[in-house]
Structures are given as C-alpha cells and as structure tokens.
Amino acid sequence: MVAGLRRISWITAGQTQALPLVVALLLLAGGAVYLGDSVSGRQSALYLIGGALGVALYHALFGFTAAYRRLFTEGRGAGVRAQLIMLALASAIFAPLLAAGSAFGQPLGPALAPIGVSVMAGAFLFGIGMQLGGGCASGTLFTVGGGSTRMTFTLVAFIAGSLAGSAHLPWWLAQPKIASLSIYNEMGWPGGLALQLAFIAVLALATIRIERKRHGVLEQSEKITGAADAWRRLLFGRWPLLWGALALALLNVATLLVAGRPWGITWGYTLWGGKVADAAGLDVAAWDFWQWPGPARALDAGITQDVTSVMNVGIIVGAAVAAALAGRFAPLLKIPPRSLAAALIGGLLLGYGARLAFGCNIGAFFSGVVSGSLHGWVWLVFGLLGTVAGIYLRPLFGFEAGGLFRPEFLRRKAL
C-alpha cells in the first residue's frame, strides 16, 4: 500500500465512475460465467471470492507494507493491530476445520512449510522489496486493479523475480532446515489455538505500549455516524481497518472451504512467469523446479485451471470495481525515474523472496500462521528485519523514511 494513501480524501458516492464500473462488473460477472462453464463451479466461486477480496483490500486500504512502516517510523500500530485481529479470528475458525480434515465433502489442508535458510532469506528480501516496491503481494494486486501505473511495473518485476526464484529454489532448499511444524498437531488444536491467541494478544499489547509511549494516546479512527454512513462506506469506501480485517479473515476461510487450502498469491506469479518464458522459447520445463509434479502439471495446464491465478485476477477486477465506485480509477502515466527504479528493484526482490519463503505476507504469513505453522511466525520476524532495511534504503529512491529513520533524527541521537 502506498504511504499516505489512507489520508487522502475520498470521493463521494455521487462521483462514482460509471464506465470503469460497468466494465469491471462485466469482467467480474463474465469471468465467473466463463469459468463455471469451461472449468468448474468451484473455479467460478473462487474467482468471485477473489473479487470480494479485491473490494475489501481496496476499500479498507488494507496493506501490510505501510502498516509495518508506520509502526517503525511513527510509532502508530493501528494497522498492525488490525492484522492481529485478522489472524486471531481466522485462527479460531481454521483450527477446528483443519482438525476435522474436511468440510462439506471437501478435504482441507493447511499451509505448512519447513523452516530454514530459504524462508529466512526469502522473507528478509521480501521485506526490503515491500518498502521499495510500494506494496506487498496483496497490495500490488489491489493497487494495480485500482489503476496504479507504477504498481503495474512492480507486478511485472514481481513475476520476473518469482521466475528467477523458481530457478534457484532447489539450491536454497538444500541449505539447512527443519521439517514443517504445526502447533495444532503438536499440542492438539485447542491447546495450540490457545497458545497462538495468547501470543497474538501479547503482540497487540506491545503495539499499544509502543504507541502510548510515543504519543500518549492511541490514534483514533474515523467514527461511523449512523446507518446511512455505514452503507455509504460499505459500497463506496473508505472502510474502517476492522472491517477489512474481518472481511479478509472470513474470505480466507471461504477460500479454505472452496479450494481445500488457504489463500495464496505468489504461486500464481511464478506460474505466469513460467508460462511467459515458455512461450518466449525458454526451456523452463527442463529446470528442476518445473520437473516437480505440481509445477509440471501447472505448466502443462491452462491458467484457468490454477486456483491461485484465478483468484489473483479476481482480486484485480474486484479492486477495479471498488476504485470505480469510489471515483478513484485514474491511472497516472508519469512516474519519476527513481520511483520507477524502486518499483522494478522492489518487485524483483518481492518475487524472488516469496519463492524462496514458500509464499508472501498472505501465503506464508497470514495463511501459514492461521494454519498453525511455525514458519509463518519465522517469516514475520525476518520480514520485519527486511522491512527495517528497506526503510533505510527508501531515501536513495527519493522516498521519505520518516520518524526514527530520518537522518537528522539519527544525528541528534548520536550527539
């Protein structure tokens, strides 16, 4: 999410952009019908879930990039606390569902991954990439759908970085690691869930302490003035962060129930990169990664067969619907050279890091944590370390670092 976006005044409902809205709605409805007819009703439903995710992400401006940066640079933790609420709610629903193993005849599987050098290095690079590229995996998709030209360059580089990561992943996986570990399996889901919720509460209290120590009081969100205001915000934005947290938690549950596994994003980028490279004549099928059964099947199949790809496109289209409703679909063609360089470098780091870390802020962190996988929390630690490094690098590209990371602040402390 682009810094400061939440503070921009939103357009009222009367300024909704009709043409972009009609086009986006036709793409959403037409895509759902096409997938239902050519693939399956399940793919159609997942495309619509992706559309709902795009609306929620855009209307709530629910990003991970700016939330972490605000905590480090300004001492403001509202965005991080919203993420923790999202994690707590989704965990409370995921734990018993995963323990049951199936729901409505659909087998359910967690997002588990080994913990090792690959995850640590990948999350660190991803953290840097977030701060330079201007968004995380979900943030890149919803800002592209909202009309951001700069983030389109980030997305293209993200895809290229993911492809490069697939070429090197076998080497990274040969580095030291331990097997995947689920606290739900190790402690039983009630005990594992209780431990996880307690840890989430501790993190939330830590952000409150940081914010109160820095500012004296917690930042207040805009109050909803009545039912009419609530309905207007629901349709046209902007949503309170809490609404976004609840929506993303429930939509991840919906993804689990329909797809049989939690929400992910960056596998789709890797597949898109593989498809483009293959069409361009590069023999990616000979790479070790693309000879593994899952990637090999996906490379041979159509994009519409891939759950992650279908949901990613749904997110872009859903965000376009939300942007048009809000009257904010307005691509800008002029991008400063240093900003463009940051977008490209950041995108490459995002893609490469995500492939190494078995996912991004969604697939590895959000879905990993709510699945009880310890690799999700390890991802967070190294992702935050990368975030700090990325904040220090931002001024090189003309961006404000802010707060404790301003050079003049550091000089005063040294004196």
What can be said about this structure in brief?
This protein is an all-alpha fold and 415 residues long.
Number of strands: 4
Which structural category do the helix and sheet elements fall into? mainly alpha
Q: How much helical structure, as a percent, in the residues?
A: 55-70%
Mean pLDDT: 91
The biggest beta sheet, please?
2 strands, antiparallel
Strand content: under 5%
- Note the overall shape: globular
Low-confidence stretches: 1-14, 403-415
Radius of gyration using CA atoms only: 21 Å
How are strands sequenced across the largest beta sheet? 1-2
Element order, helices and strands? HHHHEEEHHHEHHHHHHHHHHH
Number of helical segments with 4 or more residues: 18
Terminus-to-terminus distance: 35 Å
List the helices and strands and how they pair.
Layout: H1 18-38, H2 41-60, H3 65-74, H4 78-100, E1 102-103, E2 106-107, E3 115-116, H5 117-133, H6 137-145, H7 149-173, E4 177-178, H8 183-187, H9 189-215, H10 227-236, H11 241-259, H12 266-279, H13 293-300, H14 307-326, H15 337-356, H16 361-370, H17 374-393, H18 407-414
Helix pairs in contact: 1-2, 1-14, 2-6, 2-11, 2-14, 3-17, 4-9, 4-11, 5-15, 5-17, 6-7, 6-14, 7-12, 7-15, 12-14, 16-17
